[in-house]
Amino acid sequence: MPGKHLLHSEPLEYKLKAIQATMTGYHAAFWIAVGFSVVGFGLAFFLSDKSKMINKSLEDDEGGKA
What we know:
This protein is mostly helical. It has one domain (4-65). It is 92% helix and 0% strand. The longest helix has 55 residues, at 11-65.
């Protein structure tokens, strides 16, 4: 947020800088959320492949014992 002295000397400039600071924060938060979702999406596929391999190996072990 802009300095409080700007509120009294130039209120419109203060308003514009406050809006710009808010929008910058929203943009940063959005891109951080996109980054986390991409990482999570990638990890979900990676973990999904591992669990299929584990289940398949367990089924093979059970089939061989019978």
